[in-house]
């Protein structure tokens, strides 16, 4: 499995309501998406940051998803350009 963090850092213009609205509107796009195990929409008002965290079945699936077109769309939605990092997941604990 591979994790991907997509971080939106705001120096100005952090808008909690906007971030929550983006998450709510985008949710359906990710439901049932092949090879995507989890997606979390997060925000941190104190750090003026929004972060989306994905868990993919494979690195190939993750890399195929994060195109330049997607980066541009996310920039438009959030109002700032994201930093995207691919992370190897060593182990998962799921207590659900």
What does this structure look like?
By secondary structure, the protein is α+β, with helices and mostly antiparallel strands. The longest helix has 15 residues, at 16-30. A hairpin with a 4-residue loop joins strand 2 (36-44) and strand 3 (49-56). A 4-stranded antiparallel beta sheet has the order 2-3-1-4. 12% of the residues are buried. Helix content is 34%, strand content 32%. The chain has helices at 16-30, 59-65, 68-78; strands at residues 2-9, 36-44, 49-56, 83-88. It has one domain: Alpha-Beta Plaits (2-Layer Sandwich).
Characterize this entry briefly:
The protein is an alpha+beta fold and 96 residues long.
